[in-house]
Amino acid sequence: MTATSNDIDETVYIVTDIETDGPSPLRNSMLSFASVAMNRRGDVLGEFETVLEARTDRAPDPETMEWWETEPEAYKAATTNPVAPEKAMADFVAWLEGFEGRKAFASAPLIFDGTYMDHYLDQFANTRVFGGPGKQNRIFAGGGVDIYSVSGTIANAPHHDWTTRRVPDSWIGNHPHTHYAIDDARGFAHLLKRFFIVGSLPVKYRNLDIAEFGDSETLRDELVELIVSGKKSATCGALAIYEEEGEPLPTVGEYFIVPNWQGQPRAIIKTTSVEVKRFDDVDEDFARAEGEGDLSFEFWREAHIDFFTRNGGHSPDMKLVCERFDLVEVFEQETTKE
């Protein structure tokens, strides 16, 4: 059994994506950028996005502009209602200062997004992405997080595959890579969350999808402990949510990582059956397999009416994805705190 720690760092990760009119901040301009602030659990703490005026002392790169012609809607979004770089960076710093404690910059790749942001913060806001000598305001700690490098090492991939371009859609939360800065930042944030979850696992499990249970800390940890104890071997979700989020249904034989609320992997499960049923067609046997409360059908019904009501709505005719699973492996939870 693999041990997991609940010694979770409280760093705020500022996952950022930029759009530019060329490859170099010394010759070209940043057009727009967006950031998602998240903690190690993957909770989104806030979002920031802005469009910047092109710099008069820079010129667009012809090849980059030729590429932008293939993405007209994204280019429009990256250039509409721009503000002066001085204002954009000052607003960004003010937003960052609203988060207490340690902040780390993260992007994919750091060598591109990080250097552009570092240059603009240095030029217009008296701060830096990367630490170093001098008396500038220190907003970020450390050297930044390169999500490409994290993805490659966690996946145990060769260096030439250290990229986010080939990862499954589920790894980026089914957020399409659109070249709209906020869309791409959200996808990279979801990817970073995934790597925090799978980092302590054996390599053979790191490529599995993640199954998160419940909608609160108390409920998730309760359900996860039921799974770990072997008392829970079934679950259900609203089909409409799968469709809305573009998430494929689980398939028989598929394995999943089950994390607790802190984002620590606690178990591996394997799907053994999947059925789509009306809420009112769920039977007592399935309700009992969910392992909750006193195992009665009445408890299951009331608890799930409450759950679905606060997560998009409930009706007797709503379609549920009813899944049964086997417990494959349990990971012990240990603490490294005194």
General description of the model:
By secondary structure, the protein is of the alpha/beta class. The protein has 2 domains: 7-203, Nucleotidyltransferase, domain 5 (2-Layer Sandwich); 209-334, Sulfate adenylyltransferase (Roll). Helix content is 31%, strand content 23%. It is built from 10 helices and 12 strands. The protein has helices at residues 62-68, 72-79, 85-96, 110-125, 147-154, 181-198, 217-228, 239-244, 284-289, 297-309; strands at 3-5, 12-20, 30-38, 44-51, 103-107, 145-146, 209-210, 234-238, 255-259, 265-278, 319-330, 332-334. The strands form 3 sheets. A 5-stranded mixed beta sheet has the order 4-3-2-5-6, with helices on both faces. Strands 7-9-10-11-8 form a 5-stranded mixed beta sheet. Helix 4 links the parallel strand 5 and strand 6. The longest helix has 18 residues, at 181-198. The radius of gyration is 23 Å and the shape is elongated. The protein starts with a strand and ends with a strand. 31% of the residues are buried. The model is unreliable at 1-6 (pLDDT under 50).
